[in-house]
Design a protein that fits this description.
With 188 residues, the chain is of the alpha+beta class. Helices cover 24% and strands 16% of the residues. The protein is globular, with a radius of gyration of 19 Å.
Length: 188
């Protein structure tokens, strides 16, 4: 579709103050749907699951069922960590006990991230299109930051300069310590 008149119009949120980009934006051409999804890491036809082979030393905190890890590089948000199951299972494969633990772990992680200080809210997001091993993204939004609110937080986190390494590492240590106070063990 080369005629711009046939493209979808921009949604209103591109003019909201939380949207990180401005200028001459346009909606990408809508591509046809495929018959099936691409295979994810850990699925037949995909790459091997990196979470299944990762040692506990790559994590901030671990217990019998859960592990918390940071991304490889600091984020533009003051905190970003991933909560994942120890077992290779996806969200729809959680049994009732593990599903109940997920709720408690999200609340524990929210409290641990808030303990870093200077955090306005903790955003919990679940995307599962890259890997089949269950994980959620947990972002700490800076207190008082009126642009990083809402669904644009991940965009800002990828756009802003990374949090300084010493501050990043100190925040991760707080999170690991806070989580370990209620069980499991800190790996920091």
């Amino acid at each position: 579709m080369s005629d711009d008149a046939e493209r979808l119009p921009l949604p209103d949120f591109v003019r909201w103050p939380i949207f990180p980009f401005e200028g001459d934006l346009q909606v990408r051409e809508v591509t046809p749907k495929r018959a099936e999804d691409y295979p994810r890491d850990g699925e037949p036809g995909g790459s091997p699951c990196p979470s299944c082979t990762a040692p506990d030393s790559e994590y901030l905190w671990v217990d019998e069922h859960w592990r918390v890890r940071p991304p490889l590089q600091p984020s533009g948000a003051p905190v970003l960590v991933f909560l994942e199951t120890r077992a290779h299972v996806d969200l729809d494969g959680l049994d009732d006990e593990l599903a109940g633990e997920l709720g408690r772990m999200i609340v524990r992680l929210d409290r641990a991230i808030q303990a870093v200080g200077g955090i306005g809210r903790v955003h919990v997001n679940r995307w599962g299109d890259g890997g089949s091993h269950f994980h959620v993204w947990c972002y700490g939004r800076p207190l008082g930051d009126t642009q990083m609110i809402g669904f644009c937080l991940p965009l800002w986190a990828m756009t802003l300069p990374p949090t300084p390494t010493d501050q990043w590492n100190a925040s991760l240590a707080v999170i690991a310590t806070e989580l370990a106070q209620r069980g499991g063990r800190s790996m920091v």
